[in-house]
What we know:
Elements: H1 2-31, H2 48-51, E1 59-66, E2 69-73, H3 76-84, H4 86-89, H5 98-103, E3 111-118, E4 121-125, H6 133-139, H7 141-155
Amino acid sequence: MKKTLSILLLVATIFLQNSGFAQSQDQRKQQYNLGKAGLAIEGYDPVAYFVSGKAVQGSNKFATSYQGVLYYFSSQQNKDLFKSNPDKYEPQYGGWCAYAMGATGEKVEVDPETFKITDGKLYLFYHSWTNNTLLKWNKDEKSLKSKADVSWKVFIK
């Protein structure tokens, strides 16, 4: 009887942990900027921003998923770097515009070629012919980052 109860508790614990993990993945997929194709950063390689210093289009040949979010990479080496430390390479605020997240708390699309790496973190920005939010971010980065950190917690609980 005691052994059966222990097994049931173990099974229940595993089930609850796994269902929480599934909810976490679903929440990420719902809140992250994945576009119509369900792909992060419009298929750009998140590691390339760090190792090449520029936006580089990834390939489905080098794809991997992290907690429900699909990323493409430009090389096997970049894919391996990501898999060794995904939190280092994932864009902040789910890949939404960092400026908008700080200024208004809204999720706004980005131009994957408009980015900044600060303190080892990748920030993406909206950029059109008339509006480059990276320039606005640079004018008040500390305050906007602080506000964006708080705003993002509303989406990811």
